[in-house]
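Quick one: co-fold with phosphoenolpyruvate.
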Amino acid sequence: MRKPIIAGNWKMNKTPEEAKALVTELKPLVKDANCDVVVCVPAVNFAAVKEAAKGSKIKLGAENVHWAKSGAFTGELSADMLKACGVEYVIIGHSERRQYFGETDKTVNQRVLAAVEAGLKVIMCVGENKEEREAGYTDALVEYQTLIGLNGLTKEQVAKIIIAYEPVWAIGTGLTATDEQANETIGVIRAAVARKYGKGTANKVRIQYGGSMNPKNVKGLMAQPEIDGGLIGGASLKAPDFSQVVNYDK
Ligand code: PEP
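Sure, here it is.
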């Protein structure tokens, strides 16, 4: 059995003061959660979130990481820097990074390798855009993104990776993949992992759905056998909404 994992992606939102207030409000609301609970936040909020989340189930995540250990990479953060700030999880290859910041499958892979080596838990994002879905490329594209992203990891390392299947057309748009669409594509991703790394490994990999997941649609999505959790953008910015997603089974 795979333990579900619900992670918030705050994107470029919240000051440290606002972060502290949100986590303080969230803490009691998620205390009985049956899933892993993570908030991935801007680096300026690491200290505030760490402090506010003390003694709770809420784990700290980052939204990106660089592949180099250190050096002339203005504005970037290394895996060791994240670790030193108490970060446990990191999102890699989010579609907004791919779309606006030139992230490629190759750099996603470099970041994944560096994060795993440093002991961070990786949430690696894959997903098709509207044109790719309409052209019938969804399966081929997510298989390719997944296998290139994981390239160079051992079976044991792959088993611990969290993959977020996020159809780009569903992110921040209010459009959601149907429960069946999400389940089917996640099944395609798991089958690709199984072909390369074996069924045993693929059955351990947790694969989240992301794309306008919210308190209203979470139950249906989480009832699907292949869906092991969610990566939540908009609905992670308010404690009542995020806690309802986290407590989807109550
Ligand atoms: C995301 O940013 O990963 C995301 C899924 O956003 P939203 O929930 O707002 O669609």
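If it helps, The chain has a mean pLDDT of 97.
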